[in-house]
Write a structure and sequence with these properties.
Helix content: over 70%
Number of helices: 20
Order of helices and strands: HHHHHHHHHHHHHHHHHHHH
Radius of gyration: 22 Å
Largest sheet: none
Number of strands: 0
Shape: globular
Distance between the termini: 38 Å
Oligomer: single chain
Strand content: under 5%
Number of domains: 1
């Protein structure tokens, strides 16, 4: 059992190191794109871009229909022993989102002017919506294809396509569009073109990773009906959570000027670091959960849940301290002084995301282990609460009301999920060892609070110093208090795999 636990930690460390580095780099590229659009066009045009991008993301998620989770669950079951069934899983897991996305995108394309005029009261939004509508099908296919590569537990292919290539290509194309004078429409078109190109790369990776799935094997078939039912049940919770996370931009845009949406978008983009960290662990945690659950190895599953939750939380805390204690500096340095009034919204949104990071992969656990209906119900209830809150608060308080509704609903959902995991699976990620992290973050917060009072922190070097102080002191105190055996093993493995990843990338 101990040897098996070491193997799980190694898999988690290897995947998390590659995935985390890739996601951080990809998020940095994505954030750089957002910063570029925000700085080049100002809050007004950035707000229009944010509305179009929000519709793209929401419609893309609806079109995926949970197939990105289903393809990992069922693909892991049939890989590599049953190539015929694996081929069936890949066919339905990738083909269905592509077709559904094309249909949803076509409908939005036809209704773009109506949305722009009747819902958002801004006819200039029409061409932006039309371009983003064209990207819905490719985005759904990209998400499913990138997820399919994770069946092999080789995270670099998913990271390279979805996390790195797409945002890098989008940034280059957007800057080129701005250079030739195409403006906001050019930026929208560039985003869509980057998604289409990356889809082709992801499909190539799928073909490269699973050549055996191309052979003729009619003796066995994939359980299509079971896959569809599972994906639909998973998609319910995913859609509800995505709506909780993103619908605030749309409601805000229907009640307030696009400039306020742009400021709020800057705050929201600055608060998602914690979700990136959690997503990095979840992307490799999902095939591990599927494998251990099918084998009935509950103790190993609990150990993997504990270590992934602890380190997702630890990696989030120092950055949360900076965002919470220096929000004006963060927005001013990153997006510009025009966006500084979103500081309070940033603090509130960051608190909700920290709850997400601190509760771990609760939704993933419930979905993969067959308790997805509980998770769907919880997500549906919290979405209903979110809609009530956001429609009540936004007309009166604007982006502050949107932040309160979103953070409260999102944080509440993941706390409910934690309780559900405890009740349904008897899994609990916390113990007294977390006190070390809490002591470390208190010390880090004291230093950041003192540094944030100085004006130089509203410059890039100053904010960098504050961030390094927060992270450095947190790590130092944690080391002084002493890492646990599983922590030392995890850190050593992450460092080893990160070094190999860096060496491979440079040579």
């Amino acid at each position: 059992m101990e040897a098996s636990g070491v193997a799980d930690t190694a898999d988690l460390a290897q995947g998390a190191s590659v995935s985390l580095l890739g996601r951080i780099a990809g998020r940095a590229l994505h954030l750089l794109t957002q910063i570029s659009v925000g700085r080049l066009f100002g809050p007004q045009a950035y707000g229009l871009y944010a509305i179009g991008q929000t519709i793209l993301r929401l419609a893309g998620l609806v079109s995926v229909l949970g197939m990105d989770t289903a393809v990992v669950r069922y693909g892991s079951r049939f890989y590599p022993e049953s190539p015929g069934r694996l081929r069936g899983v890949l066919a339905i897991g990738i083909g269905f989102p592509l077709v559904a996305g094309a249909a949803v995108g076509g409908a939005i394309l036809l209704a773009a002017r109506w949305f722009a005029v009747e819902v958002f009261n801004d006819p200039s939004l029409t061409p932006v919506l039309r371009w983003f509508a064209l990207g819905i099908g490719p985005l759904a296919g990209l998400q499913a294809s990138a997820a399919a590569t994770r069946i092999s537990k080789r995270m670099q292919f998913s990271v390279l396509s979805e996390e790195l290539t797409q945002p890098a290509l989008a940034l280059l194309l957007i800057l080129a569009a701005v250079f030739v004078g195409m403006g906001l429409i050019g930026a929208s078109a560039a985003t869509v073109l980057s998604i289409g190109a990356t889809l082709l790369i992801a499909l190539y990776f799928v073909q490269k990773l699973f050549p055996q799935a191309k052979g003729e094997d009619k003796a066995t078939e994939a359980p299509w009906r079971e896959i569809l039912l599972f994906s639909l049940s998973v998609s319910g919770s995913r859609i509800f959570i995505m709506l909780i996370t993103w619908i605030d931009r749309l409601v805000l845009g229907s009640f307030r000027p696009a400039a306020e949406v742009g400021i709020y978008q800057a705050a929201a983009q600055s608060s998602v670091l914690f979700a990136i960290i959690l997503g990095a662990f979840n992307s490799i945690f999902s095939p591990i959960v599927a494998d251990l659950w099918h084998r009935g190895e509950r103790h190993r599953l609990e150990a993997a849940f504990r270590i992934s939750t602890k380190w997702g939380f630890y990696l989030s805390l120092p950055f949360f301290v900076v965002i919470w204690l220096a929000p004006v500096q963060v927005l001013t340095v990153v997006f510009g002084s025009e966006y500084a009034e979103g500081a309070l919204a940033l603090m509130i949104l960051a608190a909700g995301q920290l709850v997400n990071a601190g509760t771990g992969a609760v939704g993933l656990l419930l979905s993969i282990t067959g308790y997805q209906r509980r998770w769907v119900l919880a997500a549906g209830v919290m979405l209903a609460l979110d809609l009530v809150l956001i429609l009540t608060l936004v007309p009166r308080y604007g982006m502050l009301g949107a932040a309160i509704a979103t953070a409260g609903s999102l944080g509440g959902l993941f706390l409910i999920g934690l309780v559900q995991v405890r009740g349904a699976l008897a899994l609990w990620p916390y113990d007294r060892r977390y006190l070390k992290g809490l002591v470390s973050v208190v010390a880090s917060a004291a230093v950041v609070y003192w540094l944030a009072r100085f004006p130089f922190t509203q410059t890039l070097p100053g904010l960098t110093l504050v961030t390094l102080a927060s992270v450095g002191l947190f790590v130092l105190i944690l080391l002084i208090l002493g890492l646990d055996a599983e922590d030392r093993q995890f850190v050593a493995l992450v460092r080893s795999h990160a070094t190999r990843f860096w060496s491979a990338a440079n040579g």
